[in-house]
Design brief:
Layout lengths: L6 H6 L12 E4 L2 E4 H11 L4 H4 L3 E5 L5 E5 L6 E3 L11 E3 L1 H11 L10 E5 L3 E3 L17 E3 L2 E5 L3 H4 L14 E3 L7 E5 L2
Parallel strand pairs: 3-5
Antiparallel strand pairs: 1-2, 3-4, 5-6, 6-7, 7-10, 8-9, 10-12, 11-12
Length: 192
């Protein structure tokens, strides 16, 4: 949620996801799909367990910053491919509440507190900053972070996050809070 930077990583930086090259077409649910889109779909599906990903809606960002649907889903989850301009993987898959949280983040609006959302990033994630939700690239003072496969809990009440470390440079092998003290703080929970 790359995060889209996590969550936002993919969404905010997702303008690079548009592939302009001509490519062969295939069919996906009765709709023509380019070879480039098939790669984006595969990347997005890597974010979640296979059983969940196979029925998720897959979206990608166009160069104009607008989302386009690559494949309609049926289970309420939305998956996004890794952003090719970030330094590592950041494909993500989220439920409806997490998607609303991500949209609030992208629009610089406070997300609804207490509307808990869940996100997967099973391919891992790289973030420009563990402290700044709007950092666009790693810099020496913004606590760039690389996290292995993990899940995220977003939108919880602030006291939920008090039970977890809020270090700027956390141990990414145990649960921690990303973007602590901001309206976009969320739990990062490694799974391996």
């Amino acid at each position: 949620m790359r995060k889209l930077n996590w969550i936002g990583r993919t969404i905010v930086l997702g303008g690079g996801l548009l592939v302009l090259a001509a490519s062969a077409h295939a069919e996906e649910g009765g709709k023509a799909v380019t070879a480039a889109d098939k790669k984006l779909i595969a990347s997005a599906m890597s974010a979640a367990p296979a059983g969940l990903a196979k029925n998720a809606t897959i979206v990608a960002m166009n160069a104009d910053g607008k989302m386009r649907v690559l494949r309609e889903g049926s289970n309420g989850y939305t998956c996004m491919p890794s952003n090719p301009v970030t330094p590592g993987p950041d494909a993500m898959c989220m439920d409806k509440n997490a998607m609303e949280w991500a949209h609030a983040w992208m629009e610089h609006k406070a997300p609804e507190v207490g509307k808990v959302g869940f996100m997967y990033m099973l391919a891992g994630g790289t973030d420009a900053s563990n402290t700044d939700p709007y950092a666009t690239k790693p810099e020496a003072n913004n606590h760039w972070i690389r996290t292995g496969p993990h899940v995220m809990v977003v939108g919880a009440n602030p006291e939920f996050y008090d039970a977890y470390p809020k270090n700027a440079d956390p141990d990414t092998k145990s649960p921690y809070i990303m973007w602590a003290g901001t309206p976009y703080q969320h739990l990062m929970a490694p799974i391996k």
